[in-house]
Design a protein that fits this description.
Blueprint lengths: L2 E2 L16 H18 L10 H12 L5 H12 L8 E4 L9 H4 L2 E2 L2 E6 L2 E7 L4 H4 L7 E5 L4 H7 L8 H16 L6 E7 L5 E7 L1 E2 L3 E2 L8 E2 L2 E5 L4 E6 L8 H9 L5 E5 L8 H8 L7 E7 L4 E6 L9 E6 L6 H11 L4 E4 L7 E7 L4 E11 L15 E2 L4 H5 L4 H16 L1
Parallel strand pairs: 13-14, 14-17, 17-18, 18-21
Antiparallel strand pairs: 1-19, 2-20, 3-9, 4-5, 5-6, 6-7, 7-8, 10-11, 12-13, 15-16, 15-20, 19-20
Helix pairs in contact: 1-2, 2-3
Length: 421
């Protein structure tokens, strides 16, 4: 069985036909057996995996197409309530991974689900959305005619099954309607600050910074930026811990090293490389530190962060929310346990297992979590997520006034610390 690397990837289904029930049975056996052999927990999170086989194997015989097959297989796998798992066609991979880093075209718009409404939280300067005069706090009524309720019906919710992760998947599905292929158009209907209804048709523009992050994965579009908010406080953001060397992020960090306070914004960060995460965190410690242990049924592997010079000497704040997953969550957890700074924002979803991928055949891939992470204090962040030190949410009223309440809180917090020095 050929292994491939999958991080933060969930499969749904395809709509083409399968070759027959015999092949379905073979695929089922391959999927069930790989989970049986490699799933990190020998107790399968208290699920009786043999009973699950007996329950689902007859259902496979009734699958007449790939849609039915993958829905049934994923329903079986999701019984384990674990992140980083799923099965589907490689050809469908791009439509099911993070739009933040895998979609080729954008209109320069970011959103969050706030009080069950699609609210604009960021607009890229000189983008299609900016040129259409879309502002922070505007409420999106529909995208290509689809309301939030319509989009909710399209979501295939995946484990872990908690409210934060459900909001992550719903937001991701909305973003998939906003992102797309370059030069294609998307129709956005929105309410402005005066609740005046407007419809615009925007053209998606091509994204830059394309990289390849592994066999079997589509190209990724990594983004990073840093700047000084004031003479004392700097800002750094990036959308994924990719590639492994994280050079584009660390070079931006170098530009703001002399700041007295630093805000690292991981809201919407899709995670990725553990090695990249350790390279970043190495800039904030003075000595080698064990941050956790990766555990499966056969072994326990302690992992460490090594100090890397030059060390950042200022005060640190990290922004996270329900769209910060995997390595982004881990970064928040490590910053908290080492008291390297403060975490501000919303509790993260808890997608915190180590996933590996397998090619079932030339067209089908399976992702399985093969390790769980345990912090030195015994805390397992999977499903639990990371609680911020200061729980600060976004709200439409502030956004309509141009205020990002999470970022504003971080700036005020750092200013108070710096003033007291």
């Amino acid at each position: 069985m050929k292994k491939i690397v999958f991080l933060n990837i969930m499969f749904i289904c395809s709509f083409c036909s399968c070759k027959g029930q015999n092949e379905n049975a073979i695929i089922f056996e391959e999927v069930w057996s790989n989970v049986n052999d490699d799933f990190f927990d020998p107790n399968f999170d208290t699920v009786n995996w043999l009973v699950i086989k007996k329950e689902y194997e007859p259902l496979i015989q009734n699958c007449n197409n790939n849609e039915d097959l993958f829905l049934t297989l994923n329903k079986m796998i999701f019984e384990l309530n674990s992140s980083h798992c799923g099965v589907g066609l490689l050809s469908e991979l791009e439509s099911n991974v993070s739009p933040y880093i895998f979609k080729k075209g954008e209109i320069g718009l970011d959103i969050r689900i706030i009080e069950n409404q699609i609210i604009v939280t960021n607009v890229l300067k000189n983008s299609s959305a900016d040129n259409a005069n879309i502002k922070l706090g505007y409420k999106i009524q529909n995208i290509d005619g689809l309301t939030l309720e319509d989009i909710n019906q399209l979501v295939n919710y995946k484990p872990p099954f908690n409210k934060r992760n459900k909001r992550f998947h719903l937001t991701s599905e909305v973003l998939r309607k906003i992102y797309g292929e370059p030069k294609t158009k998307v129709k956005i209907t929105f309410l402005d600050k005066y609740n005046f209804l407007t419809t615009v048709i925007l053209t998606r523009t091509k994204r830059n910074s394309k990289i390849n992050i592994g066999e079997g994965l589509p190209d990724a579009f990594v983004q990073s930026k840093s700047y000084f908010i004031s003479k004392d406080i700097a800002y750094l953001s990036f959308n994924a811990f990719q590639p492994n060397n994280l050079d584009h992020v660390l070079s931006n960090l170098d530009k703001v090293y002399k700041s007295k306070g630093l805000i690292i914004d991981l809201r919407g960060n899709d995670g990725g490389s553990i090695e990249g995460m350790k390279l970043l965190l190495g800039r904030f410690i003075s000595e080698r530190k064990k941050y956790g242990t990766y555990i499966n049924r056969n072994e326990r592997n302690d992992d460490f962060i090594e100090p890397i010079t030059p060390k950042y000497l200022g005060k640190l704040v990290l922004l996270v929310d329900e769209m910060s997953i995997s390595a982004a969550e881990n970064t928040a957890g490590i910053i908290k346990q080492f008291n390297l700074g403060k975490v501000i924002g919303n509790q993260t979803p808890g997608q915190m297992l180590w996933g590996n991928g397998y090619l079932i055949n030339d067209s089908i891939a399976l992702a399985i979590p093969i390790y769980k992470l345990e912090y030195p204090n015994g805390f397992n962040p999977e499903n639990n997520g990371i609680h911020p030190d200061f729980k600060i949410g976004l709200n439409r009223k502030d956004l309509l006034n141009g205020i990002d309440s999470q970022l504003s809180f971080a700036i005020n917090y750092l200013n108070n610390l710096i003033t007291k020095q």
